[in-house]
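re: ur question from yesterday

yeah so i grabbed the chain u mentioned. its 125 aa long if i counted rite. heres the sequnce exactly as i have it in my notes:
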Amino acid sequence: MTDNTTHDEVTIDFLERFLEGWNRHDLDGILQMLNRDCLYITGSGDRFQGHDEIREGLAGFLETFPDAHWYEARHFVSSDRGASEWIFTATGSDGTRFELDSCDLFTFRNGRISVVSAYRRERRV
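ran it thru and got these structure tokens back, copy pasting raw so excuse formatting
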């Protein structure tokens, strides 16, 4: 059994809702779960600080991959840290199909995400 209670009430359910926002491509919903000064470091090393920069970066990502989807998620939360693992699939603008094993590491503050560090690895299928 997983203990869903953590520092500032961030839970596994919170991370599940965060991932659901990604699957809906809901930028407003995603941003509501981030602190206004959140630092978002992408799997390619790009860094976005604050809601305005993050919105612009995420909008560009979702425009590049309009069919982006995350599935088979597993989440972990302990105190003010957490992690999510999943499989990511998408089609690039040139028709290339992507399937990646992915992981985000989180730092939480005041019941929201304050740092996201994303990691990606191409799947061998």
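noticed a couple things. The first strand starts at residue 34 and ends at 41. also Strands lie at 34-41, 47-49, 69-78, 81-91, 97-109, 112-122.
anyway ttyl
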